[in-house]
């Protein structure tokens, strides 16, 4: 009887260790993929991204601290499974003061419902974090991928 209980406890411990390891591996792998594929997505979108990408500086003064120059920057349109996402970022005093999603999928009611609820959250998080490093909302991972890639593209322009 003791042998069966010990075996069960060891099995549970191993299963828990595997689950934790898989969880950590999944999230670390996702972060590495986002960095590695950022340039791939931008290059795959081809001429349509170069047409939609623009920079509009309202001020040429340098920022202090974050490395962002004040102005309004439009990120490249980022391709994702359900369509494209593109954002516009306003930088003031070297910090993100406003993020606006100017292009996102609206082809079906599900897309409209998901995007109308998560995009304001992503925009607020980007302003709060002063970065493109924001958390994904469950059920809107594809939108998050496109949003963060376009946001990072705009922030890269703001650093120049």
Fold and architecture overview:
With 160 residues, the chain is an alpha+beta fold. The protein folds into 2 domains: 44 residues; 113 residues, Sufe protein. Chain: A (Alpha-Beta Complex), CATH 3.90.1010. It has 4 helices and 5 strands, in the order H-H-E-E-E-E-E-H-H. Strands 1, 2, 3, 4 and 5 form a 5-stranded antiparallel beta sheet that branches. The longest helix is centred in the first third of the chain and has 43 residues.
* Average predicted confidence as pLDDT: 76
**Low-pLDDT segments, ≥5 res:** 29-65
CATH architecture of the largest domain: Alpha-Beta Complex
Q: What is the straight-line distance between the termini?
A: 69 Å
- What's the total number of strands? 5
Number of separate helices: 4
Helix content: 55-70%
Q: State the assembly state of the protein chains.
A: single chain
Q: Which sheet architecture does the biggest sheet show?
A: 5 strands, antiparallel
Number of domains: 2
> Whole-number radius of gyration?
20 Å
Which class best fits the helix and strand makeup? Answer: alpha+beta
CATH class of the largest domain: Alpha Beta
CATH topology of the largest domain: Sufe protein. Chain: A
N to C succession of SSEs = HHEEEEEHH
Content of β-strand: 15-25%
Question: Shape, please?
Answer: elongated
Short précis:
The chain has helices at residues 2-44, 46-52, 109-129, 141-159; strands at residues 55-56, 71-74, 78-80, 83-92, 95-103. It has 160 residues and is of the alpha+beta class. 28% of the residues are buried.
